[in-house]
Fold:
Amino acid sequence: DQQVKQNSPSLSVQEGRISILNCDYTNSMFDYFLWYKKYPAEGPTFLISISSIKDKNEDGRFTVFLNKSAKHLSLHIVPSQPGDSAVYFCAASTTSGTYKYIFGTGTRLKVLA
Amino acid sequence: DGGITQSPKYLFRKEGQNVTLSCEQNLNHDAMYWYRQDPGQGLRLIYYSQIVNDFQKGDIAEGYSVSREKKESFPLTVTSAQKNPTAFYLCASTTTGLGQPQHFGDGTRLSIL
Structure:
């Protein structure tokens, strides 16, 4: 039972355009969502997060949108740069009880120069 | 510099042997985690610990064991009972406050000889 799903295994985008990465979840108890970026043979690095009390959070070129009714979140990268090429994971957690994070399977983003 | 150190970067094991992966953090984080990454499967939780001398099984704990004798350290032992141990192993930590992201080490790649 996969509680966090990233249905697109890969995405290619032209440099300077917008990259949109999507993530769906099934557990309505999740109230904290995160995006991580990962290069090969390295650990994931935290990018941006959003609490369920918000529907948007922005940090520079990165914006995360949360649609609670659809149980869907997305990461927008504008403008996309070649250095953004990596695997992106979304993760979800509850802020009460156990501090357990559930990860999606990742989307490989390739930004073409 | 504060961070998470995983060692070694690469590890080889003969069949039937136990092997221990090291994870040390100097971030003063309460919670620590072990994940396994396989191609196309994202990060799957093996074990996690929210406080010293306490830990819980994750989704794929069979064939693994952990200890949490010190706040800074959370070693993972891959036992001979783990039938498919070849994978990339990631250690993470976080504070136990509300809405905190995890910080990851750079991982250990375990291979079977």
The CA atoms of residues 71 and 90 of chain A lie 13 Å apart.
